[in-house]
Each structure stands twice: as C-alpha cells, then as structure tokens.
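Figure 6 in text form: structure in, sequence out.
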C-alpha cells in the first residue's frame, strides 16, 4: 500500500495530527480520519483548506495523491469553522 504522510490542523482547537493515508483515498476520507484521530465531530459549517489557503471544500472526491501533487504540495491541511468574535456579556447597571 502506497501511503502519504499528512498533517491536519483543526483550527477551532489548534490541535493537529500527523498520520499516513493511502494515496488513493479521497480528501473526504482524509478529513473523516482526521476528525476521528482528533476526537472531534464534523460540523455542518466546517470547510477544508490547504495550509497555503487553497479552498478544498469542493474537491472532497479527489484523491489525496492528486491534491498533494497540485494544490497542497506540503501535505498540510486545515479544517476551519466559521470565524467568530469574542462573546461579551453586558450587565445592566
């Protein structure tokens, strides 16, 4: 089995995992495995990127090998959720 070592950062928690995945696995399978290894649940608002910033959310059916040869040469990926600001609770005086 030919495999590729990849690193996936879950931006919400700033935790990352490095693991091997078959070259012919899809990006969807890569991110599913990352969620498992990170102990996280997939969120409907999650989106998928290369570390370089290329959006992969519409490419989840492509193989890991094809993505690493083109968009993500360093095999580093990110799972991002929606950006949010600080929550401020204002108490009436």
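Output sequence:
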């Amino acid at each position: 089995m030919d495999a590729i070592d990849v690193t996936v950062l879950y931006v919400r928690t700033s935790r990352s995992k490095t693991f091997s995945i078959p070259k012919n696995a899809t990006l969807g399978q890569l991110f599913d495995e990352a969620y498992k290894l990170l102990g996280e649940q997939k969120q409907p608002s999650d989106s998928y990127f290369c570390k370089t910033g290329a959006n992969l959310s519409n490419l989840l059916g492509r193989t890991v090998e094809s993505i690493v040869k083109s968009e993500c040469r360093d095999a580093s990926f990110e799972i991002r959720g929606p950006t949010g600001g600080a929550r401020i609770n204002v108490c009436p005086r």
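Caption detail: Residues 14 and 78 are 10 Å apart (CA to CA).
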